């Protein structure tokens, strides 16, 4: 809906945004007071005038001129820019992404921060002084036509200049003073809002730090996604496989191998209990906002339980001494085997699966093999991420990962140099 000119003018001068920016200027004036007081202590003796509050205009403006360089120096402290950015975001209406976070880094950023403080506190001091002094004066001028006492006062004599008919001109003049004050405050607030991105915006060092922070956060999220995918995905695949095998045995009716069913149910119980523990650990880190550290989670010492839970057709072969494997590698190797078994459950179709973990002199090698089933694997709606996760884990450790079908066998081979 189209706004009328008076309404638009009133919103520009006294709307919520204008009031917030006016308040921002008053805050700047309040912050300037200590620097102005120091200036009056220095300028009073030099000009041989009164003290802090009794000196003339020379002392006041001299103190103002002395205070501005002190403001520029104070802006070099580390907390200066975060405080200025917080105030600009809250009161100036500047979008958060256009302002920098944290202390200023580098000479250019510190110089721009000093420039902002000089502009904010300097303009704020002038607007604050006008806000304190002008409204009472404007109200008194507006009341001149209605108050004989005011007309007889020094203000009335100054205004009337021995022309009584001129008293009625004081009414619009006083109102115009108030409008002019609001206009100056709105214009100054707009100037500050437009200057904030240039003076408080991110420098190249800030952008680099922000990019590094986003990369670290993305890596943490990716690591968390890998943990959840490998743990929960393997558990669901293993439970599905064991439950399906138990159902087929029970469907055989009389003479069913109940011992096999019992083993399948035990494997399901162990797998779900272990997975719930792993899930609680990862979600606990997520609730606390911590990063998923490389040393969190099961390692190769839990490999036997992992293979046992994957079903009776999974065979594990271990060569070499695994006790000397570093904790990080032990944990990543466990996850690689876990995801390899999950992938084999999709491709093997109940065929035997062989897992080999070899600790050689020059490298650690992990191999998962299974015959390809005549039945095609169940397709996922959005594709799988397991093999990509295995490749990421291997590359983080400086190794390689290869997976594919050849001669009727699906083979996953991971090699990590020592």
TrEMBL record:
Sequence ranges assigned to domain Signal transduction histidine kinase subgroup 3 dimerisation and phosphoacceptor in this UniProt record: 221-289
Keyword Transmembrane: yes
Signal peptide region: none
Database matches in SUPFAM superfamilies: ATPase domain of HSP90 chaperone/DNA topoisomerase II/histidine kinase
InterPro entries (alphabetical): HATPase_C_sf, Sensor_HK_TwoCompSys, Sig_transdc_His_kin_sub3_dim/P
Catalysed reactions, as listed in the record: ATP + protein L-histidine = ADP + protein N-phospho-L-histidine
Enzyme Commission designation: 2.7.13.3
Transmembrane in keyword set: yes
Keywords: ATP-binding, Kinase, Membrane, Nucleotide-binding, Phosphoprotein, Transferase, Transmembrane, Transmembrane helix, Two-component regulatory system
GO molecular function: ATP binding; phosphorelay sensor kinase activity; protein dimerization activity
Segments crossing the lipid bilayer: 21-41, 61-80, 115-138, 168-193
Gene Ontology CC annotation, any one: membrane
CDD domains from the UniProt entry: HATPase_UhpB-NarQ-NarX-like (cd16917)
Protein name: histidine kinase
């Amino acid at each position: 809906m189209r706004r009328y000119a008076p309404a638009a003018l009133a919103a520009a001068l006294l709307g919520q945004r204008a009031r917030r920016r006016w308040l921002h200027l008053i805050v700047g004036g309040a912050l300037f007071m200590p620097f102005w007081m120091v200036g009056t202590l220095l300028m009073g003796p030099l000009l041989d005038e009164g003290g802090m509050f009794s000196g003339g205009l020379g002392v006041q403006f001299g103190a103002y001129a002395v205070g501005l360089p002190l403001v520029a120096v104070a802006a070099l402290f580390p907390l200066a820019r975060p405080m200025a950015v917080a105030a600009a975001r809250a009161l100036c209406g500047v979008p958060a992404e256009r302002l920098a976070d944290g202390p200023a880094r580098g000479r250019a950023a510190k110089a721009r921060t000093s420039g902002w403080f000089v502009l904010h506190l300097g303009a704020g001091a002038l607007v604050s002084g006008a806000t304190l002094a002008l409204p009472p004066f404007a109200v008194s001028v507006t009341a001149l036509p209605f108050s004989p006492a005011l007309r007889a006062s020094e203000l009335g004599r100054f205004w009337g200049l021995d022309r009584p008919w001129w008293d009625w001109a004081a009414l619009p003049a006083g109102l115009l003073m108030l409008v002019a004050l609001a206009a100056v405050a709105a214009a100054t607030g707009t100037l500050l809002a437009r200057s904030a991105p240039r003076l408080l915006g991110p420098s190249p060092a800030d952008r680099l730090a922000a990019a590094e922070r986003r990369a670290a956060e993305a890596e943490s999220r990716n690591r968390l996604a890998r943990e959840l995918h490998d743990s929960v995905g393997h558990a669901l695949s293993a439970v599905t496989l064991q439950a399906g095998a138990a159902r087929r045995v029970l469907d055989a009716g009389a003479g069913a191998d109940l011992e096999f069913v019992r083993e399948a149910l035990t494997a399901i119980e162990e797998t779900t209990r272990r997975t719930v523990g792993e899930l609680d650990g990862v979600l606990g880190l997520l609730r606390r906002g911590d990063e998923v550290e490389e040393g969190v989670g099961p390692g190769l010492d839990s490999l036997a339980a992992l293979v046992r839970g994957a079903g009776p057709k999974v065979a594990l072969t271990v060569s070499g001494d695994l006790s000397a494997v570093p904790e990080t590698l032990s944990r990543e190797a466990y996850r690689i085997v876990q995801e390899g078994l999950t992938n084999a459950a999709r491709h093997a179709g109940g065929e035997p699966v062989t897992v080999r973990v070899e600790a050689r002199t020059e490298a650690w090698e992990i191999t998962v093999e299974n015959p390809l089933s005549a039945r095609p694997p169940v397709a996922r709606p959005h594709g799988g991420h397991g093999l990509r996760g295995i490749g990421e884990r291997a590359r983080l450790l400086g190794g390689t990962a290869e997976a594919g079908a050849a001669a009727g066998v699906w083979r996953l081979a991971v090699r990590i140099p020592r």
